[in-house]
Specification:
single chain; alpha+beta; Aminoglycoside 3'-phosphotransferase, Chain: A, domain 2; 2 domains; five-stranded antiparallel sheet; 13 helices; 53% helix; Aminoglycoside phosphotransferase family protein; Aminoglycoside_PTrfase; transferase; Kinase-like_dom_sf; transferase activity
Length: 352
């Protein structure tokens, strides 16, 4: 049902864009900026009859959909005279303001990234009133299933090296922003989420609060980190592998911050798999990733702080898991996934 709603949204946007964006689906995209039009008669004169517009409508495919969160769509535009089709990615954000911010970020980073051999999508058009950002489609296979399914340890270690090298390049990009993310930012969000669960899962909320306080106390004693550009959600799901190169997508949470945020976020995803599968192999992969990053950018000294972010993200995931499946927690109790994730967070904090 949710996917059908997302597909209907994508088709609606395609029809609307076709009528109102003066040929946004043609192969020659205009410069990025808010989409506007002078008058309905002018638009209709340029895009032709309704039948002609219908023939130019793209095929829509839902790539990801999160209720009340985001929707990622792929539009496949057939080229005239049997040429190769053009693929465009459309991402619907919670607000038009966020769509514009992400587009501006990509516009700043994209030329720099190319100089570093880094692939990020080029923004094409923002339709602010719908929160829609249109981007070029970058090729590649998502790293997440590769990490989860590959059995060869050496191949996995190579993938960790590629991911670490990609993150190092990201952290070298020049970027200015008023939005600065820190450990305190994440802890405040975590305490707020735990507070909302005190009435329905008091023990879980208390355990989470205790861990967050410990993380905060340790963080207060750690050295001040140098600020750099951060992705804000760096994980295998945001990386696409193509012919030995990695492309990075999803810059919704990017800004300035401690580079250990990105390193810890990536490691947290691996620890999460380790908990789900009861497999130490993925914990070792997380260690390999940290070693590869540290070897390439030792001056950041992220190893001194990464355990704080790793533990904080595990606590966040535990609380989020409870919110999504509270009945599973009630049935499994101490063996439930939220509890196991909190235990993993405590172990990472103690084993720093």
């Amino acid at each position: 049902m949710e996917e059908r709603a997302a597909l209907q949204l994508g088709q609606h946007l395609a029809r609307s864009c076709s009528c109102r964006s003066l040929g946004v689906w043609s192969s020659s995209f205009q410069e990025i900026g808010p989409c506007g039009a002078t008058s309905e008669s002018d638009i209709l004169a340029q895009v032709g009859t309704e039948a002609e517009r219908a023939r130019r409508l793209p095929t829509v495919e839902v790539l990801r959909y999160k209720l009340h969160g985001r929707c990622v769509l792929r539009y496949i535009v057939e080229a005239p005279a049997g040429g190769a089709p053009t693929e465009v990615i459309g991402k619907v954000h919670k607000s038009g303001t966020l769509a514009v911010q992400v587009a501006q970020t990509l516009s700043i980073l994209q030329p720099q990234a190319a100089a570093y051999g880094l692939i990020i999508p080029k923004p094409l058009r923002v339709i602010e009133e719908w929160g829609l950002l249109l981007m070029e489609r970058v090729s590649g296979i998502a790293l997440k299933p590769i990490v989860e399914q590959t059995k060869d340890p050496q191949q996995l270690k190579t993938v960790m090296g590629l991911a670490a090298a990609t993150l190092v390049r990201l952290h070298c990009l020049r970027f200015e922003s008023q939005k600065v993310r820190s450990l305190q930012t994440w802890l405040e969000k975590g305490h707020g989420k735990a507070a909302s669960l005190h009435l329905v899962a008091p023990l879980l909320a208390q355990q989470a609060d205790t861990l967050l306080r410990q993380i905060g106390q340790l963080g207060a004693r750690s050295a001040v980190a140098p600020l750099s550009f951060i992705h804000g959600g760096f994980s295998p799901a945001q990386l696409l592998l193509e012919k030995g190169q990695i492309a990075v997508v999803d810059f919704d949470s990017s800004g300035l911050g401690d580079p250990a945020i990105d390193v810890g976020h990536f490691m947290e995803r691996l620890h999460q798999i380790a908990v789900n599968r009861a497999s130490n192999a993925f914990r070792q992969l997380a260690t390999d990733f940290l070693s590869e990053y540290q070897a390439r950018l030792p001056e950041q000294r992220v190893a001194e702080r990464v355990h704080l972010f790793l533990s904080a993200f595990l606590v966040r995931t535990a609380l989020h898991t409870f919110e999504r499946r509270p009945y599973a927690y009630g049935q499994a109790g101490p063996d439930s996934l939220p509890v196991l994730l909190l235990q993993e967070a405590a172990a990472c904090l103690a084993g720093r």
